[in-house]
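Format is sequence with structure; example below:
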Amino acid sequence: ELEADRLDAMLKAAEFLRRNGSLILANRIARQLTGMVYPPMVRLGGFLLLARIEPETSADIALELLTSDDPILVSGGLMLVADAQPADATRRFAELLDDPAIPGDALIEALVDRGDTSIRSALLKHVNSEDMAIRTTAVRALGPLGSQDELDLLIARLQANRGEAEAATDALVLLRPGEVDVELLRRYATFEDPPAADLAGILARRNFTPAVPLMLQAALREDRVGRQSIRALATLAQPGDVPELIALLDLVPTDHRRGIEQAAAAAMRRSDESPPDLAPVLGSLESASPENRVSLLHIAGAVGGPEAAAVLDSIYRSGNVDDMKMVSQIVATWPSASTVDLMLRVAGETSDQNLRARLIDACADQAREWRRSRTEQATELLQALMPLAVTTEEKRSILEAAKKVVSWGALAVAQSFESEPGLEEEAIAASEKLADRLHKRPPETMPTQ
């Protein structure tokens, strides 16, 4: 009954000897444990230890494991492939892809980690494998291990089944930059779908900003190329592109307008300034058409900052019912620290229960964000939310935030819910925990009489 412990101790002893330079003795123990009489896990431990003792022969050890009949040993061989020596053993590993007994997809992934481009020919053979797992893994591997020569193949696979299309997309994203980017842009510039719509997203994931001017042109299209190009602009557009994006609001199809708003907001958030300068957006607010005015305010709300908050607050206070409704939706969609006061005002005045719940949740989240750096403000925010909550779920949202804000005010908030139906037990537990944490603080943090 001690045999398993004995074998484990032998492995540990051999590893100890290896680390301390007694390689001959460590080697002898490790080789003994690779014997067929031992359980697979023990044998695997012996083989892996041998690979560390004799790294120059680790490729031979990996090949022995990979061709084993035991799946445990095969998995160990896969672990060794990436770093196995000598470096020119890659071809020998690639030949095993033809062995149906070895999990080809896992072996390809291990070879990708090895980083040897010499297996390209083997990958090209297996991109047409009847085994779906091997086929998709081989296609994906052409990204890190392939070249521009595989562009036609990969672009064609974008129209294959979902698994292959995703693998081809990943591969095109991972191809080494340089001439590949230029060629992808050339093919995208045809605006033919397929493949231009897919290439828009691929260029975005490759962060190829020279594609932006063409994407601004494509945004005018009403087809899939136009939609995907607008989505790509949300990734690639820079602050300097915002005026052109705003100009597109009058030109794009109506159902593309929201995408342009999101792209403009994302571009502004890439500004080096914090908060970003909203002049390109707010400067044309007064002369904008009603539709564009709504879009500009959506962009300002998404970007956030004191300037945006001031404009939204001013519009809300104007009393125009449509404007008040619009601003209410904007601050609920893009809540921020700058709009907390406005969110509280809207939550207190709205008759829309769903809107009020969203705003209370957003304010509670903000209190949690402030809990360490601005504890006093977090506490004041929780206290301001108390009279606004109507439903049990709204009150629970405030209680959950109070649990995180360790202050005497937060404790008072939690205690106020102790008699609230449906929240009694939660509130009592939260109050006890907060009180315990507060009493463990140094005396100077205790409230004075």
Remarks:
- The two ends are 69 Å apart (CA to CA).
- Residues 353-370 form the longest helix (18 residues).
- The chain is about 65% helix and 0% strand.
